[in-house]
Structures are given as C-alpha cells and as structure tokens.
Amino acid sequence: MMDTKNLLEQLLWGGGYLLLAPLAGGLLAGFDRILTARMQSRKGPPVLQPFYDVFKLLEKRGTVVNGFQNFYMICFLIFVMLTGVLFFSGGDLLLTIFALTVAGVFLVLGAYSTNSPYSTIGAERELLQMMAYEPMLLIVAIGMYLVTCSFQVRDIITFSAPIVYSLPAVFIGFIFILTIKFRKSPFDLSSSHHGHQEIVKGISTEFSGPTLALFEIAHWYENILLLGFVYLFFAAFGPVVAVVSSIVAYIIEIFIDNAYARLTWRFTVRASWTVAATFGVVNILVIALLK
To answer: How many CA atoms lie within 13 A of 50 on its CB side?
Structure first.
C-alpha cells in the first residue's frame, strides 16, 4: 500500500513538473525582462511577453539547415524534461545531473550539425561551459550525500536540518555556476542576449521558428529545475522560505547579469574550477573530517 502511495506521489510530482514548469518558467522569464528593464531605467515588456514570443515562433515556418538539427533539439527538450521528472519525483540526484549533461550534449550536437561558423563557435563554447560547471554540480551532489547519507532527492528534501548550514561554501559555489547555467553575463559565452554581439546568438544562430521555440521552452524547464536545486539547500526551513530563497537567488543572478560584461572562456573555466576547488572541495573535506 505504501509503495503504491509513493508511486502515485512520484507520478503526481513528475506530471506536475511537466505541466507547470513551462508556465512557471515563462513567467520567470517575463519577470526577468521586467526587472532587467527597471535596472536599465526602462519600462520593459509585459510579463507574458515570453509566451507571446514562443507562440509567434510556433506559428512560423522554420528554416532547416541540416535535417538532424530538429532531431537533436527535440532530444534536448526531452532529456531536459526527463531530468526534471527525475528530480521532482524524488529520484537520484546523480542520475539527474548525468541526464542534464546528456541534454547539453544533444544541444551541442544540434549546433554542430548546422555547419555555421557562428553556431560552431557557440557549440564549442557550450562545451567549455559544461566543462566549467560540471565539477561544481557533482560537488553539490556529493556534499548533499555526505550530509544526508542519500542521493535520493526525496531523502534530501525531508532532511531534518537545513543543508545550507552544513554546506554554506558549496552553496556559494553553486550560485556562482548558476550564472553559467542561466546563460547570463558575465558567463553567457555560447548564446549572448543580443544578436549584434560577436557570435551573433552563437549556439542558437541557425535555429528558427518552432525549433527555436523548443529551445526557449527547454530553457524554461531547465531554469525551474535549477531553482529546485536551490530549494534543496533551504527545504528544512519550510516550503515558503525555500521558495523565497530560490527567488532571491534568481534576482541575484539578474543583478549580476546587468552589472558585469561578458568575460572570456579562459577566465570562465579558470574561475569556475577555482571556486569548485576552494569552496566546494574544502567544504566537503571539512564535513568528511567532522564525521
């Protein structure tokens, strides 16, 4: 009976993510645009503008450079959705991170398949970004395992004490690499916000119409998943505090996005590995020694 109840809960949370994450992610993107505009002394678009943009893209006829690019983009979206289902249904945190990596690989393959110089540069920079943030993601999973003795999200989220108390440095390191995952300055290397910059939208240059819409929707799914990681650090405080903490973390990322210009890929990789080594590894060593 208990197993059936747990299965139903997992299906409910996984299905809820599939249905509600695009809505929440689109609203978050709209909030992002408004707050960014306010920081730049502009009025900004309406909060529903991201939905209008995606609907407009879905109505357009896409231009296909290579027959495989749409296939890779669909795989990218599917694996991002699968990653979120694994996470929100309480599954294995390591498996979640590996599935997210596979999703990123499909995105890179889609960009490479177009044979566009700008898209190729974007794909190469995306690989560099993955190389930069993956160590910190793994450190987050390892740190949470050392604290809770489990890789299962359902066990981590129900842990009695706030995880951020045990992993403060790991949390700081995770916030650092979130700037890369959210595709924000100074680390928006593979796909800049503005088409006039040197890589002309980079990894998404050759995607158009419905395919570009899938890219945006996958980004919404991914953003909600990443905020779910932030939620885990504060889950013991209760849902309200954890949700507010996740929103505050996103606002911090928006502020960083508007306060810094893009940096080079060399600095990105070097800084990310330095943060992972100094904040992440040291925090984990302290926990391991205290056990």
So the answer is: 21
Instruction: Say which residues have a Cβ less than 8 Å from residue 93's Cβ, sequence separation at least 6.
Output: 87, 141, 144, 145, 151, 152, 153, 156
Q: Label residue 150 left, alpha or beta by phi (over 0 means left) and psi (-120 to 50 means alpha).
A: beta
- Give the per-residue pLDDT at 1: 44
- Helices (H), ranges, the chain: 2-39, 49-59, 67-88, 93-112, 117-148, 153-157, 163-166, 168-181, 209-234, 239-259, 265-275, 282-290
The answer to whether the peptide bond before residue 186 is cis (omega within 30 degrees of 0) is yes
The DSSP line for 166-183 is H-HHHHHHHHHHHHHHTT
Mean pLDDT, range 202-228, rounded to an integer: 91
What is the rounded CA–CA span in Å between residue 87 and residue 96?
6
Does residue 200 come out as left (phi exceeding 0), alpha (psi in the -120 to 50 range) or beta?
Answer: left
Contact 81, 103 (CB under 8 A): no
Please give the model's pTM, rounded to 2 decimal places.
0.92
Quick one: average pLDDT of 224-231? 97
31-78: pLDDT as tens digits? 999 999 998 888 889 999 999 999 999 988 877 777 788 899 999 999
With 50 as the cut, is the pLDDT of residue 195 above it?
Answer: no
Here the tokens at position 110 are 């889609």
pLDDT of 171 > 50? The answer is yes
How many whole angstroms separate alpha carbon 165 and alpha carbon 170? 10
Rounded distance, CA 126 to CA 145, Å?
A: 28
Q: What is the dihedral of CA 138, 144, 145, 148, to 10 degrees?
A: -170
State the helix-helix crossing angle for 117-148 and 282-290, rounded to 10 degrees: 20
